[in-house]
Amino acid sequence: MTAADSNTRIVRWALVAGAVAGLLAVMAGAFGAHGLRNLVSERGLEVFQTAVSYQMYHALILVVASLMPVLGLPRKLLAVACGFWLVGILLFSGSLYLLVLTGTHWLGPVTPVGGLCFMVGWALLAIAALKK
Q1: What's the CA gap between 105 and 35, in Å, rounded?
Q2: pTM of the model
Q3: Which candidate in 18, 38, 107, 125 could, as Cys together with 62 as Cys, close a disulfide (CB 3.0–4.6 Å)?
Q4: Where are the alpha helices (DSSP H) in 68-109?
Q5: In which band, very low, low, confident or very high, does the pLDDT at 96 lie, cut at 50, 70 and 90?
Q6: How far apart are CA 45 and CA 114, in angstroms?
Q7: Greatest C-alpha distance within the chain
């Protein structure tokens, strides 16, 4: 495998992950709006919507970041940032979805770890932009 192939894979996985995360965010949003309305409290719907919103924001940045190597930003640093955003989606949004859908409160401490992953991803993006 050449360096160009490796660089293309870095871009491709972030694009695919962003597209899938965006698709799932739309599906979760529709489910929350139509399927949960009579099943959970108003606060539960707010928490679910927060999970959907953060998932969509980070799905979009995954897609955008996959295109940033065209601007000359370091691919490997972008790939690490994308990894943190993807883990953030799983931990932050995933724990909130499970909290609302199952009432499992022990997942509460996982949510801030996901938020921290989001922050690390954004910090790495800033570093990548400064390294250009």
Answers
A1: 21
A2: 0.90
A3: 18
A4: 75-88, 94-102
A5: very high
A6: 20
A7: 54
Query: 75-93 pLDDT, tens per residue?
Result: 999 999 999 999 999 999 9
Band of residue 11 on the pLDDT scale cut at 50, 70, 90:
confident
Cα separation, 26 vs 103, in Å, equals: 22
For residue 27, is pLDDT > 80? yes
Kindly give the interhelix angle for 94-102 and 42-67, rounded to the nearest 10 degrees. 160
Q: What is the Cα–Cα distance from 24 to 120, expressed in whole angstroms?
A: 23
Q: pLDDT digits over 39-48, tens only? A: 999 999 999 9
| Other CB atoms within 10 Å distance of the CB of residue 42 | 8
* Secondary structure (H, E, C), 100-113: HHHCCHHHCCHHHH
Q: Give how many domains the chain has, as a whole number.
A: 1
The dihedral formed by the CA atoms of 83, 87, 92 and 98, expressed in degrees to the nearest 10: 150
Boundaries of domain holding 28: 3-131
